């Protein structure tokens, strides 16, 4: 049987960058991100013995990271500023009509961030997980809503973003 410490070290090695990206979605402050990262690791350690394997390990990690981040930011989460960079490899999932290329222009990226930051808590969480490249099923497992509900919510968010970023001209 693999020791808890070895299993934990493997999890950290395999998921460190993923956890850091989640932290960056939830806090623009580097010191807060470091504290959040540490708190996520503590929560993974505490929960490791209770992991039953009902979900994929990566889904379990995301759930801990998102829930810890939400708890860490507390009431300030509604004012949380999502930071989206042009090097976010999955930014293309938001738009399927070539708008991704336009977003590389700084003003459009700033507008996207502004729109994302005006979203509700659940919408911000959905979009951060979508930008992480999770499937609809994985997002549903992490957030705790049905997969069809995730699909509908994400579709609506994308449509709203397209409309707002194209000056309301999107149908």
From TrEMBL:
Pfam families: Sigma70_r2, Sigma70_r4_2. Residues 110-161 form the RNA polymerase sigma factor 70 region 4 type domain. PANTHER family: RNA POLYMERASE ECF-TYPE SIGMA FACTO, RNA POLYMERASE ECF-TYPE SIGMA FACTOR. Keywords: Sigma factor, Transcription, Transcription regulation. Belongs to the sigma-70 factor family. ECF subfamily. InterPro entries: RNA_pol_sigma-70-like, RNA_pol_sigma-70_dom, RNA_pol_sigma70_r2, RNA_pol_sigma70_r4_t2, RNA_pol_sigma_r2, RNA_pol_sigma_r3/r4-like, WH-like_DNA-bd_sf. It comes from Paralabilibaculum antarcticum. Residues 12-69 form the RNA polymerase sigma-70 region domain. This is RNA polymerase sigma factor. Gene3D superfamilies: 1.10.1740.10, Winged helix-like DNA-binding domain superfamily/Winged helix DNA-binding domain.
